[in-house]
Amino acid sequence: MSIAKAIAVLMRPDVTGAVASETLAALDASHGPQARARAWDMWRAHPSSASALMAQAGVLVDQGETERAIDLIEAARTHNKTDSDLIVTLVELFMRRDRQDEIQALCTELIELDPNSSYYLAFSGVTMARCGKFEEAIRLYQLSLTKPDLSSLTLAVTLTLACILQKLGNHQAALEALAGLPNEHTTRYYRTFGLYEELGAPRDASAGVSSQFA
Predict the structure, then answer these.
(1) What share of the chain is helix, strand, coil (3-state, %, to 5)?
(2) Would you say residue 97 lies in a domain?
(3) Which domain holds residue 8?
(4) Cα–Cα distance for residue pair 127/121, rounded to 1 Å
């Protein structure tokens, strides 16, 4: 790969961290570390978009430089506090360092951008579950299910909510959560995740939840 081609790839507004890492590795292999460093410096000095900044953070993480990645995204946020992609990226970076206070504050910021966004609520619910804050995760998941824009997230959110409730030993609430799944999807997802067996519910109890389980 030529240096010019590598830089052209890196300068694309939609470049991802994975593509950037592959491009830099290919450049290193074909032209050596100095060429890689030159391309990185040019890209680092002139990011083409917020997506490019997130890609740069991904490259730094791949290199084991998570703190530099955090500094990069935090610096970008000084100019754009309301960019949800930057917030989500920073949450993921803080997860690598178990900085839970900052994570919770960022999730609050994300939801405040649009309290009616099912995606923001669901993402925050996932994040709280990953932090071990299951009660808060349940609250956010349940709230996300009330939003009109849920659409394609319905299945994922409902199944995750059921699994968390089951983990906390609240079997009946887990079954009630599953009852909200669209009938055409319930059997397939239910059996795929083995939720009935996990919940310890007998097959003949399914009638009270959905005829699809019978």
Answers:
(1) 75, 0, 25
(2) no
(3) 1-79
(4) 10
